[in-house]
Design brief:
The protein has about 170 residues and is of the alpha+beta class. The protein is about 15% helix and about 40% strand. Strand 1 and strand 2 form a beta hairpin. The radius of gyration is 16 Å and the shape is globular.
Length: about 170
């Protein structure tokens, strides 16, 4: 289980590197804004997916992500918090088209696991806390919202360190 998270991070880094090279070739005509997501995955109009809804029917959330092959990269924002800071999401699309998405705090610890299967216009699933071992219902509705992201640049050569899950 520990090594599964390392594989997610490695896959994301590889995909980001490949995606950056492709975008450089295609970006000669019009400069693109970057999205604030893990390892500088570029924001592409039409590929970003947006959801809004509730965890346990009480906590309002906004989720947006991109899917590249079977890797999901995005952010979740809890709308009932004071600062409404986005939290990094990283996950996979399983063989049955269901999602398994991990929620990471800045230190790299997993704070939540989102599972479920999106259908046309709705996403029904669950949110699980590894710390408290509680599982809560997750009900989302698809939105066609455009999200203004900060312009950021990440140099892949500057990414270093040890990553682990405990």
């Amino acid at each position: 289980m520990k090594y599964q998270y390392l594989v997610y991070i490695l896959l994301l880094t590889i995909i980001s590197c490949n995606k950056s090279e492709k975008k450089v070739e295609a970006s000669n005509a019009v400069p693109q804004k970057s999205s604030v997501t893990l390892a500088s995955v570029k924001n592409q109009v039409g590929k970003e997916i947006y959801w809004k809804g509730f965890v346990n029917g009480k906590a309002p959330v906004f989720i947006h992500y991109q899917i590249d092959d079977n890797v999901i990269v995005g952010e979740i924002t809890y709308l009932n918090t004071k600062n409404k800071l986005p939290i990094t999401l990283l996950g996979t699309v399983e063989d049955d088209n269901s999602y398994r998405i991990l929620e990471f705090e800045k230190s790299g610890n997993v704070t939540g696991v989102i599972t479920g299967k999106p259908s046309e216009g709705t996403f029904t699933g669950s949110w699980f806390s590894p710390k408290t071992r509680k599982e809560l219902a997750l009900n989302l509705v698809k939105k066609d919202t455009a999200l203004a992201s900060k312009e950021t640049e990440t140099n892949v050569e500057n990414l270093f360190g040890r990553y682990h899950y405990q």
